[in-house]
Amino acid sequence: MTYEERQKQRTSTMSEIEMTTHLITSEDGTVDSALTDSDTTWVDGESSTDDDTDHHAVSPQLTWIVTAATIVSNMIGVGVLGLPSAFHSLGYIGACLILVLFTLLSMYSGLIIGWMRGDNLQVTTYPDLAFHIMARFGQRTATICKRVVQVLLFTYLQGVCTLYLLTLKLSMEQMMRRCETAPVVTTLAPTTTTTTTTIDRSGIHDNRVLQCDSQACSDHGFASLPDAVWLIIAAVLVFPFVHFRSLAQARWLSWVGVLTILIVNIFIVARSVEHRIDAGPPPTDHADSLQGIVNAVTTVAFAFGGHAVLVDVMSEMQTPDNYPKAIYTSQIFMLFNYALVGFTGMLSFGASIQSTVMLNMPRDKVTTAASAILIVHVAVAYCISSTILVKNVFKAVWPTLYAHKGQRQEKAVRWGFIATLVLLFAFTIAVVVPYFGDIMDVYSAIGVFSLSFWVPASLLIFYVNDSMQFGIRIVNVMILAASALLMFIGIWASTKDAVARFRTCL
After folding, report:
1. pTM for this structure?
2. Which end of the chain has fewer CB atoms at under 10 Å, N or C?
3. Cβ(196)–Cβ(209) under 8 Å?
4. DSSP assigned state of 321
């Protein structure tokens, strides 16, 4: 069945439901008792009439340009900061191949997610989409698939919020933390562990050392506080942004997010080129193990990890038919941005590159200003991810209240409660695992390879079923198998790295 036939069938079915509802509804607006199970559709795994659409959100207001900006602001985020380090581990050819491959996969997954969602107003979240696709195999199967997607979605978005909180902390330290003494770093060798304190005046460290202490500070800093206190300040800063209950309510934040990350990226490129000119060719005698290469691939994948929010974003578009424009625009923009920042940092710092390239920047006033701009971007990105996460949790815990048109005050209270819990969880994880690279790799392996790659591919196979061409089926099966394998290998590599860090640093 072609796409046009599916859309025509869906429109016809919706019209029949509306006509049936009209016939059994009395003049005073109440539903007649003649409404039977055959007149009921299934939404979110629960019985619901066609009127139970998403009343929690405001009416769709996002244009395709704003949608593209929202996708860029969410995806490009802090993932770009880890690309120079990942590119160095992969090498020139490997970095080019992985970057182009993930761009194509990201674009493909984004398009098929939008195509499967179509104009179905009842599908407003990723778990909704999973239930909608699998409903043909029975309610039980559809509900199980929905729960699996929910677990992956909640885990990934919670990790993203944690990473944003850590980035916010590092940015504040680069602005205000006073540089006391050279931090202690530990070099890992196959059989021995040695401690060194070598550090140059620009704060650039060798990539082969295991950093136990925060490297972020400023020569113009004025405060010396424990990491936990910096995290508390970061949590206080983002708290006002967690109360938006719709992306449309904060669509102006998307433009702020894009503008701020562009300024930060321009700063990174400019300072990287300046360093290359002043210092000359960087050290390049750096060969990564299989574990290091896997972590590098996982880091690149994280930069394309925004598919978890695409259904939510699409549900708030004025014209969903323009959704492909937003996908093409955002992904092409990201490709050029990632290539510019990743390769510039790689060519400038080489083996000295750190997990977040901002730590390679000189500790001067310009870096302090760039860190302030990055703080604004991270706050915006946290707002987007937190809004999507809280919306999905709210809908899973209180589906009836979520679909209800009224009770705005009750909704606001419960929304604030969930948003606060999300922030507290992010704070707790950041205190226990305060390492930027490890957090990024672990949650990328769990959430990106699944929600961005193998889940869309598998849902498409079930959605099209017997009408899928053999070649397209093979492609999607390969995407499913490869991304599932990378997911488990990525979890192994990132977990092993985190364990090694804990054993050495604690």
Report:
1. 0.76
2. C
3. yes
4. G
